[in-house]
């Protein structure tokens, strides 16, 4: 087995789930497979605590993080999935408009 180039974790904690993160994870996984993107894994995570960052609960939800780059995305929507696949999963480009921070 080769290591993943990118491992996407979609938060399915309570606040992100309330804003549709399960659907985002399912769509992201489906689109990665349909596009034949190799060495990319999509998983779910528990709460990443980003939802509490500003004191306004859920403001940054849903959250998606990508490792090993340490890229944290916020406010991801299903309509963002194709861009994440085309730019990040395929080319390793960060989608700046969704970026919360990068380690
Ligand atoms: S529930 Fe997703 S960051 Fe907290």
Topology:
Elements: E1 6-11, H1 14-18, H2 21-34, E2 40-45, E3 64-67, E4 71-73, H3 81-91, E5 99-102
Parallel strand pairs: 1-2
Antiparallel strand pairs: 1-3, 3-4, 4-5
Bound molecules: FE2/S2 (inorganic) cluster (FES).
Secondary structure tally, helices: 3
CATH superfamily label: Glutaredoxin
Instruction: State the domain count.
Output: 1
Bound compounds: FE2/S2 (inorganic) cluster
CATH class: Alpha Beta
Helix/strand order, N-terminal first:
EHHEEEHE
Rg, Å, rounded: 13 Å
- Determine the N-to-C terminus distance: 26 Å
Number of strands: 5
Please give the order of strands in the largest beta sheet. 2-1-3-4-5
CATH fold name: Glutaredoxin
Q: What portion of the residues fall into strands of 2 or more residues?
A: 15-25%
- Give start-end ranges of low-pLDDT stretches: none
Structural class: alpha+beta
Helix content: 25-40%
Shape, per Cα inertia axes: globular
- CATH architect. name: 3-Layer(aba) Sandwich
């Amino acid at each position: 087995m080769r290591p993943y180039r990118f491992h996407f974790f979609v938060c399915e904690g309570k606040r992100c789930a309330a804003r549709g993160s399960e659907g985002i994870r399912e769509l992201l996984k489906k689109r990665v497979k349909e596009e034949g993107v190799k060495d990319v894994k999509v998983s779910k995570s528990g709460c990443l605590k980003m939802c509490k960052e500003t004191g306004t609960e859920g403001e940054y939800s849903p959250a998606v993080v990508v490792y090993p780059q340490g890229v944290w995305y916020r406010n991801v929507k299903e309509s963002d999935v194709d861009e994440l696949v085309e730019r990040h999963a395929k080319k390793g480009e960060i989608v700046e408009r969704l970026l919360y921070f990068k380690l």
